[in-house]
Amino acid sequence: MLRKILMTAFVIILTLITNYAKAIDSVNPFLGRWALYLPGGAGWLEVKQMDSYIDADLLWYGGSVTPCANAYMDGNSLVVTRQREYILTKDNQENPTRVHKATELYRFDLYGDQMVGELISPQKDGSTNVTRFTGKKIPPVLAAPDLSKVEYGKAINLLNGKDLSGWKIIGENKVNGWTISNGVLTNNPIQKEGQPHISYGNLRTVDTFEDFNLKLQVNIPAGSNSGIYLRGIYEVQVLDSYGKPLDSHNMGALYSRITPSVSAEKPAGSWQDVDITLCDRHLTVILNGTRIIDNQPILGCTGGALTADEFIAGPIYLQGDHGTVSYRNIKISPIIK
């Protein structure tokens, strides 16, 4: 009897080891970072083999890079899941009385070096949305460039001080909340109480750029929020975060990716100096004369990116759908390759 029990236990252990080895072998081609090309937007996926499990982080259109709820292999397919809640009913005091926890399932398959993905997303009404997309492996980030040896072209003034020549609103049916007067570019996305929400647009340069140094001044009212997108891919956060603990969502951060090493914000309503260098997928940010990000590697796009492709030229774009903000003295000096 004891021998039979031991043999059964041995078979179970051997099966678990064999299945784990198969999972490791099948996940290997997925390991690393992936640019996700979504319908009308961009995403990012990182897959990691930990000691005893598979892990994954995901960026889906906007927001932050977040850990997935689960990651596992289903045959040769990688599956990751995320969860979100739907409030179905409330009581008279608006307290939730019935909540569903929906599991979003992302399935990834490889065909050669091409990733093909599918999101199955349950909806509040019981239906299901299916989103199909593709992915491409992101090459590793190389060593940090020596910025002391970088050569810059002539500085280009991106504001003429009089009108929005050289800029345009991103997206159809977006309202323009941007004006320029006396050299100051201001966004004022006013919402009228009791009226339908107005969808204001982000503002981008007509011209595109590769690597560069960008200098500007920004003034953020209390509680307001904007962002400076480099090449339309990477967002340097603009936020009234004066006095708050260090965070990857604070002023000068690479949104949800790189936390400033020190707080250098000024109080709301002050003009602040921002000096940004983007070179070989590395970022340096000097805020009000203090270096808060020092030639750090960028691992992928940020939420709101126009594309997941990090190897093409793109515009400078300023986030205009969040809050009131003013910019002035925007000058860019392209890096000469």
Report on the structure:
By secondary structure, this protein is mainly beta. The protein has two domains: 23-137, Lipocalin, CATH 2.40.128; 147-336, Exo-inulinase, domain 1 (Jelly Rolls, Sandwich). It is 8% helix and 47% strand. The strands form three sheets. Strands 4-3-2-1-9-8-7-6-5 form a nine-stranded antiparallel sheet. Strand 2 and strand 3 (54-60) form a beta hairpin. It is globular. It starts with a helix and ends with a strand. Residues 8-23 have low confidence and may be disordered. GO terms for molecular function: hydrolase activity.
What's the CATH C level of the largest domain?
Mainly Beta
Please describe the biggest sheet, giving its number of strands, its sense, and whether it closes into a barrel.
9 strands, antiparallel
Widest sheet, order of strands? 4-3-2-1-9-8-7-6-5
Reported CATH architecture of the largest domain? Sandwich
- End-to-end separation: 75 Å
- In terms of quaternary structure, the protein is single chain
Annotated CATH topology of the largest domain: Jelly Rolls
Rg from alpha-carbon coordinates? 24 Å
Query: How confident is the prediction overall: mean pLDDT?
Result: 92
Structural class: mainly beta
Low-confidence regions: 8-23
Question: Topology, please?
Answer:
Elements: H1 2-27, E1 32-38, E2 41-49, E3 54-60, E4 62-67, E5 70-74, E6 77-90, E7 96-111, E8 114-122, E9 128-137, E10 151-152, E11 156-157, E12 167-169, E13 178-181, E14 184-187, E15 203-205, E16 212-219, E17 225-230, E18 234-239, E19 271-279, E20 282-287, E21 290-297, E22 317-318, E23 325-336
Antiparallel strand pairs: 1-2, 1-9, 2-3, 3-4, 5-6, 6-7, 7-8, 8-9, 10-23, 11-23, 12-15, 13-14, 14-23, 15-22, 16-19, 16-23, 17-18, 17-22, 19-20, 20-21
GO molecular function, one term: hydrolase activity
InterPro entries: AL/BT2_dom
Pfam family, one: 3keto-disac_hyd
